[in-house]
Write a structure and sequence with these properties.
By secondary structure, the protein is mainly beta. The chain is built from five helices and 24 strands. A hairpin with a 2-residue loop joins strand 4 and strand 5. The longest helix has 8 residues.
Length: about 350
């Protein structure tokens, strides 16, 4: 899994019966003893997420991804509980900033930049979005390392230098979360604007009438970013006659976690220097591309992303210092409407 909400790379070395929620781990496991480049320490490490946790020891090893490789600190984890909902997933590549790394390491992609392997100090993510693209290419997305792919967005990329300032709520732009997760009182106030919406205590999910077109936007530093209504339905799930909403109640969280319902609408760029994020409207139903260049340059990896939820509890925020992206609360309420 590629996760902008956390900073560590972990690889499972063993699985427990409850490692995978309602599934069985089937993916390959990491074996440090089989690697001639691995340096296994005795330093324990435990990484907790909003959903699940994993623990083991810190390892140094050469990690390869596409045409790139780096000597990388990672967590080799032998104990995992409710860490995934996808049996094939036995690891996670954290893409957030180094300050939040539990292993006190430089995240892999930033490590590539620090070792001179990238043309630009950034990476970019795009997801399949809208009903048309979901129907033709379910769960397909791309990660571009060291550059951007102009075929996947329209207009110009608007960058926001971090940390952001001004009156706001704090948010994490998180590719590892399949909802826009809000504190309980904020989620309730949001759905109060949508006639017929209901909270399922059993499933702990908000639902709304499927024939209602939900219009939502987030305002970031004065700029409004609308979510395409086709991206609002939470992974196409339903609650009987209702559709599961893309905005969900995450309890007592102190930061908003802005996940894939928003990111499916925008090409998202994460830049290390200067620390910033960039957003541009995504090309709807764009055909995915794959390319990679050796040595210094860029690489785009495109493939099928597993469906599941995993959110960092140790908030891996998008900033070099305070880690926050400014999001105006009122804008989310004002632009929730029904037709």
């Amino acid at each position: 899994m590629l996760d902008t909400g956390s900073s560590d790379l972990y690889l499972m070395t063993a699985a427990q019966p409850d490692s995978c929620t309602d599934c069985v781990i089937t993916g390959p496991l990491y074996n440090a003893s089989a690697s001639s480049t691995a340096n296994v320490s005795t330093t324990p490490v435990s990484i907790r997420y909003l959903i699940g946790e994993t623990s083991g020891v810190v390892v140094q090893d050469v990690v390869s991804f596409g045409s790139f490789s780096a000597n990388q600190t990672l967590a080799a984890t032998s104990i995992s509980h409710n860490i995934t909902t996808v049996g094939a997933q036995t690891g996670l590549l954290g893409l957030a900033w180094a300050q939040t790394a539990v292993t006190n390491s430089t995240p892999f992609v930033e490590n590539l930049w620090r070792t001179g392997q990238l043309d630009e100090p950034l990476f970019a993510l795009s997801f399949s979005s809208g009903q048309d693209s979901i129907a033709t290419a379910p769960n397909v997305g791309s990660l571009t390392i060291g550059g951007t792919n102009s075929s996947q967005y329209t207009g110009d990329i608007q960058y926001f230098i971090l940390p952001a300032t001004g009156p706001s709520e704090n948010a994490i732009l998180d590719s590892g979360t399949n909802s826009i997760s809000l504190p309980t009182e904020v989620a309730r106030a949001f759905y109060a604007n949508i006639e017929g919406s209901v909270y399922s205590e059993e499933l702990q999910i908000w639902g709304y009438p499927c024939d209602t077109e939900i219009k939502v936007a987030l305002t970031i530093n004065g700029t409004s970013f609308a979510v395409d209504p086709s991206d609002f339905n939470f992974e196409g799930q339903s609650l009987g006659p209702l559709c599961a909403g893309g905005v969900q109640d995450a309890g007592n969280i102190t930061e908003w976690v802005v996940g894939t319902p928003f990111m499916q609408s925008y090409y998202s760029v994460f830049r290390f220097d200067p620390p910033s994020i960039g957003l541009a409207p995504i090309v709807r139903a764009a055909a995915p591309t794959t390319n990679s260049t050796g040595g210094t340059g860029t690489a785009t990896a495109t493939g099928t992303a597993p469906t599941g939820t995993q959110t960092s509890k140790s908030a891996a925020k998008i900033s070099s210092e305070t880690g926050f992206l400014a999001v105006t609360v009122a804008s989310l309420f004002a632009l929730a409407s029904f037709l």
